[in-house]
Each structure stands twice: as structure tokens, then as C-alpha cells.
Amino acid sequence: MKILKPTAYYEPEQVSSSHLDKDLEEAFLQAGFDYIIVAPSPTRDVSKETRIAYKKIKYEQKFDGKLEIFRIPVFREGRNPVGRAWRYFWSSLKIYRKCIKQQNVDIVFAASTPPIQGILAAKIAKKLKVPFIYNLQDIFPDSLVNAKMAKKGSFIWKIGRKIEDFTYFKADKIIVISDDLKNNLLAKGVQKEKIDVVHNWINLDNVYYVENKNNSILRKIGLSEKDPIITYAGNIGFAQDIISLIKAFEIINITKRVYFVIFGNGSEYVTIKNYIESYKLQHFVLLYPKQPQELVSEVYSLGLFSMISCLPGFGDISVPSKTYSILATGTPIIANFDLDSELCNMIVNNSLGKISPSGEIELLAENIIEAIDNYSYERKKIRAFVKENYSSFICTTEYVKIIRRISFKRK
Questions:
Q1: Does residue 6 sit in helix, strand or coil?
Q2: Which stretch of DSSP H or E encloses residue 271?
């Protein structure tokens, strides 16, 4: 069995799904599959030295040749949306040309970032005359509408829907990460038989609880083991509505001291930084850039709770992958999220934390105070829940089964 994966990013680049990609890679190789990765030369969040070094690396082999990596030279990714779109288009053409030269491929497997990745994979699969499996992590253009970056019925939205319909029609199997995403696709007319739900996961060997007395981040930020801390770690963008979280802590700190520690990068980082400084909140709101991946256990172990947040309307199209990292450390969640979402149902049904409707700042503040004053969570039980339901072994095994079924049907 040989799997071909065209992708927009690959290590040493780090994106939110990097740990999932790595675990899948290991699962495929352990299952005896040959795996081919075709990716642009790395540019995202890598040093100049790394960028220069990889200009000379066009091909790699690992695991006795079971894993092959082809690097496509393209210009560096910038922040300008038009420039990034052009880079995606240009790199897709070059990736396509490299992929269709591969021999004895059985499956084309691709994820949904960027949105045109599905079109690229479908075209490659058609040329090679093999099935196409699509791993859907996020729904475009719904995410743009919810983020108020486009309006339903607008030109961009119509293009996004065309991309969606084409990709879903061409895919032989669509793997979605939640029942909410499945229902979204069913409402758009996608055949039920095409869709399988496999939740995202966490590798419990890599993410675990770190006691505060051993937590290097606690020492770095200058707080003590006795200080009540709540964290947010992740993307700091418009959709995450970090301002609402900070406003809730402004209310809390009128009567009691609770520290809110934020780790992340994103389009709203400067806005958040300016807000904190303008209102002189630095004594209880601490903002830091995204921490290295090797510190993920310390980041999510730091607080009594860790927060997940989004604007209204986002809950039915995404279950943040960091959910499983947070729970793997045994840390309960406080969610500022859509109440009818799969995430909130999971939290409530399994006693994993507290939930508040997106944007309800006063209620969120009340929930945080109540959660701290009546803390009753056991980290071991929360971690056990993840182990039983969202371990990397359980979930990646499902991917292997799906690929084998598709391959068997083809034969």
C-alpha cells in the first residue's frame, strides 16, 4: 500500500495540526504502508538558517525508504493575503507536477488546509486513477462568514462553495473531526456513505501533567504556586474573541485577584497587547508569544483551568484540537463557546469544566469565580477520559482501517 500526500506544510514547519500529522505518519508506517510526502520548502515559523539549509534538500528518505519526502522550492510565505494566495496557487502547480510522476500509488490523502488542497488532491487522484481521501479539519467558506471576513452570498463565499462542492463530489471518502461537521456536510447534500467521523486526538506520551513546582514557565512569568492562574494558549485571531475573555477578568479582579496568562500569536496579538497596556491590566493579564512545542505540557498544566473561546457561530464547524492537549494534562476547561456545540456537550456530559455562551462576559466572569471557589476536579480522571476516548492509538487506528477499506473496495 502506497499513500501519496500533497501538503502545504511539513516539518520543520509547525502548524496547529503538526502533532496530528506526525502521529498519522507513524501509524501509517507501523501499518506497513509506504508514504510519500510532497511539500513546499519550509518557510513558516522557521529560521533563516533553516530556510537556507532546506534550499539544498530536494529529497529525503526515512525509515528504510518507507517514507519519502519531496521538497518543492517556492518563494517565502508572507503575511499579505494576496501574496499568500498566489504562493498557494504557484506551489500547487509544482506539487501537482511532482505528484503525477509518482509510481504505484494506491491512495491520495490530503487535509483541508488551505481550502484549495482538496482540488489539488482530487486532480492528482484523477490523473493517477486512484481513490482520494479528504481529511476535513475546517469548513471553508463557513469559517470566513463566521469570522465576518465574507458575507453569505458574496463573491468570495460563492467561490468557496464551488470549491467545497467540487472537493466533496470528487472525494471517495471524507473524514471529519466531529459529528457537527458531519451534519454540516449532510445539510449540503454530501452522501452519508462518504463521511466517517474520527475525532482529533493527543499523544499521551508527549503531553502530560507537570506539577507547578517543576514548571519552568511558572518561574519564567514570575508567579508562585499559590497564585490562582487561568490560561489561554493558541491562536490570537478575530474568531477567538480574546477581548471578551480579558473583559471577564477585569470584572473578576474588581473583587479578587485571578491571573489570566495568554500564550499565542496571531492577527490580533498587537490589538490585544495594546488593549492590555491602554487599560493598565498588566498586573493580572500576562501576554506572551506562542511557546515551543516541547513546552506544551507545561503550558496547559500551568492553570487551574485553561480556556477555549470563539465568537458565536463557530461551534458547529470546529472542535479546537488543543482541547485534547488541555485534557491530557488533566486540566479542566472553561469554554466561551456555542452551547449547542459538540465541545460544550462533551464538557458538560463528562464533567470536564464549565461553559458559558459565546460573548456573555458577565456570565463568563461569574462562572470563573464559581469554578475557582468550588474547585472539585481530579486531574487523573480527566486524563483517563482522554485515554479512553481520544488517544492517538485509538484514533489513528481508525484512519488505517478506513484506508484499508477504500483500498480493498478498489481491488
A1: strand
A2: helix 269-278
Q: Note the residue count of the chain.
A: 411
Closest among 78, 135, 109, 157 to 4, alpha carbons compared: 109
Contact 104, 80 (CB under 8 A): no
Strand order in the sheet with 67-72: 59-62, 67-72, 34-40, 2-6, 107-111, 132-136, 173-176, 195-197
Question: What's at 239, amino acid-wise?
Answer: A
Average pLDDT over all residues of the chain: 92
Phi and psi at 71, nearest 5°, equal -105, 130
Q: Given CA atoms 218, 287, 386, 201 in this order, what sign does their dihedral have?
A: negative
pLDDT-derived band at 88, boundaries 50, 70, 90: confident
Q: pLDDT tens for residues 317-327?
A: 667 889 999 99
Question: Over the stretch 201-258, which tens digit does the pLDDT of each residue have?
Answer: 999 999 999 999 999 999 899 999 999 999 999 999 888 999 999 999 999 999 999 9
Residues near 234 by beta carbon (within 8 Å), at least 6 away in sequence: 16, 240, 263, 264, 308, 320, 322
Query: Could you tell me if 94 and 72 are in contact, meaning their C-beta atoms sit under 8 angstroms apart?
Result: yes
Asked whether 299 and 270 are in contact (CB, 8 A), the reply is no
Q: How many CA atoms lie within 13 A of 21 on its CB side?
A: 22
Helix or strand or coil: residue 261?
A: strand
Region of residue 129 (left: phi > 0; alpha: psi -120 to 50; beta: else): left
Per the model's pLDDT, the better-predicted residue between 45 and 396 turns out to be 396
What spatial distance separates the first Cα and last Cα of the chain, rounded to whole Å?
12
pLDDT score recorded for residue 317? 66
pLDDT value for 318 = 66
Answer left, alpha or beta for residue 201, where phi above 0 means left and psi between -120 and 50 means alpha.
beta
